[in-house]
C-alpha cells in the first residue's frame, strides 16, 4: 500500500484536490492522508467546500490561521514536520501557489520525501507577487511536475526543468465538468439575491497586490461602483479584502454593490455560470470563467493563464486606472465576435492521469 500525504490550505486547493482524491479512492493500491494547514480557516472558505466537493474530512488540521508570509510559512513547516515524521509517506502532493504549497515543498524536501506539484510551471513573471515566489521554489523542489498547459511546460523548460514534467491538462476543468449540473440543481443563490441570469456582474478581489494597496483597491471599488449604476454587481467579499477596506475607510465605495460573504462552492459555480461578466484577480476564477463561457476582466498587470487572454475570453485591466477597468468591463460585456476555443485544458480526466503517474512513480515504473 502506497501512502500519499496531500497538503492543502486554501479554497482553490480544495477544488483542485477533489478530483485527484476521488481518483485515489478508486485505486486500492494507495492510501491518501489529507492535511489541512488551516491557512483558510473561515468556514466560507474552508469547511463548506469539503462537504460540497465530496472530500473526506482531513486527518490533520494544523490550524495555522493568518499571519505574515514568513510567520504562516514557518508555522506550517513546524507543524507539518511532525506529521510527516509520524506518517512516513512515499510522496507529498501539493497544489498551486499558496504559502501552504511552499511550506509543504520545503518541509518534504528537507526530509528527503519526493514532492509532486499540481499546476507546475505557471508563471506571471512578476516576482513582487508572493505566489510567484511560491511557484518557482515549489517547482525547483518537486520530483513530479504536473503542468496544465504547453505554456507551463515551456516555462519549466526555459528554467532548465525537463525531467519529471507531465502535461496533464487542468484538474479544475475536471471539476467544472463534474459539478456544473449539480450546482444548478442545488444552489438557490440567484433567488436569494433577487438577480437574473445574464443580469449581473460577478466580482472577486483578494490578491495582496490589490488589497494591500489603498490606491489600487480604491480604483477597483470605484470602477465597480460606476458599473453598478447600469447593472448589479455581486461581490462575495474575501475576509482579507473586507479587513483592508475597513482599514482604508473604503467601505462607502461598495455600498451600491451586492456585497455578500464568501460563497460556497455550488453557489459560486451558479454565480459564475449566470454572470454577464466576471471581474476578478483570482487565477482560478479566470479559468472558471473560460470553462463556463463567461467573459472575464482580470484586474492585474499580468496573468499566468495567458491562453485565456490570447483567445479573447479574458482582458487585463489596469488597477491604477478606474476608467480602464470600466472600459474593459464594458468592452467584454458588449463583445460580439467569435472567441477562440482553447484545447489546452484537457478532456476532464486530468486527475486520473495525475493519480496514475504518481502510482507509477512510486512503484518504480515512471
The tally of domains stands at 2
Task: Give unreliable regions as ranges.
Answer: none
**Biggest pleated sheet:** 7 strands, parallel
Q: Could you say which structural class the secondary elements and strand pairing correspond to?
A: alpha/beta
Question: What is the CATH superfamily label of the largest domain?
Answer: Glycogen Phosphorylase B
Listing every helix as H and every strand as E from the N terminus to the C terminus, the arrangement reads EHEHEHEHEHEHEHHEHHEHEHEHEHEHH
Gyration radius, to the nearest Å? 20 Å
Kindly report the spatial arrangement of strands forming the biggest sheet.
3-2-1-4-5-6-7
Q: What is this structure's SSE topology?
A:
Blueprint (H helix, E strand, L loop, with lengths): L1 E7 L2 H15 L4 E7 L10 H6 L7 E2 L7 H19 L3 E5 L3 H12 L4 E4 L11 H12 L2 E4 L2 H9 L6 E3 L3 H16 L2 H5 L7 E4 L3 H4 L2 H14 L5 E4 L2 H9 L10 E3 L4 H10 L2 E4 L2 H9 L4 E3 L7 H5 L3 E3 L5 H13 L15 H13 L4
Parallel strand pairs: 1-2, 1-4, 2-3, 4-5, 5-6, 6-7, 8-9, 8-11, 9-10, 11-12, 12-13
Structure notes:
The protein is of the alpha/beta class. It has helices at 11-25, 47-52, 69-87, 99-110, 130-141, 150-158, 171-186, 189-193, 208-211, 214-227, 239-247, 265-274, 283-291, 306-310, 322-334, 350-362; strands at residues 2-8, 30-36, 60-61, 91-95, 115-118, 144-147, 165-167, 201-204, 233-236, 258-260, 277-280, 296-298, 314-316. Helix 3 crosses helix 4 (99-110) and helix 10 (214-227) packs across helix 15 (322-334). Helices cover 47% and strands 14% of the residues. The chain contains 16 helices and 13 strands. Strand 1, helix 1 and strand 2 (30-36) form a beta-alpha-beta unit. The protein folds into two domains: 2-170 and 346-362, Rossmann fold; 180-334, Glycogen Phosphorylase B (Rossmann fold). 52% of the residues are buried. The strands form two sheets. A seven-stranded parallel β-sheet has the order 3-2-1-4-5-6-7, sandwiched between helices. The two termini are 17 Å apart.
